[in-house]
């Protein structure tokens, strides 16, 4: 059985806001998706498409050695194959 709550609309800056009861268990800053269908509104937590930053993970595994950068040397390229001169223009 679902619960029924009352919420109040108020002005916040140039927008309207909906004050939701704490009993819903929502967290401040949570993103929600709001849908309107013929005057009926529904909302649900937004899909979380967050990307994980793994840039600081290398220090977590001290036995992992960084790969040598030798394959990234700036070797001469055959620009003529692209129809360009040696300057790349």
TrEMBL record:
SpoVT-AbrB domain: residues covered: 10-51
SMART domains to which the protein is assigned, alphabetical: SpoVT_AbrB
Bias-annotated ranges (Basic and acidic residues): 69-83
UniProt-annotated stretches for the region Disordered: 69-89
InterPro entries in alphabetical order: SpoVT-AbrB_dom, SpoVT-AbrB_sf
Key word Cell wall biogenesis/degradation present: no
Keywords, sorted A to Z: DNA-binding
Superkingdom of origin organism: Bacteria
Listed GO MF terms: DNA binding
Coiled-coil regions listed in the entry: none
Keyword DNA-binding attributed: yes
Protein name per UniProt: AbrB/MazE/SpoVT family DNA-binding domain-containing protein
Organism field: Sphingobium terrigena
Highest classification ranks of the organism: Bacteria, Pseudomonadati, Pseudomonadota, Alphaproteobacteria, Sphingomonadales
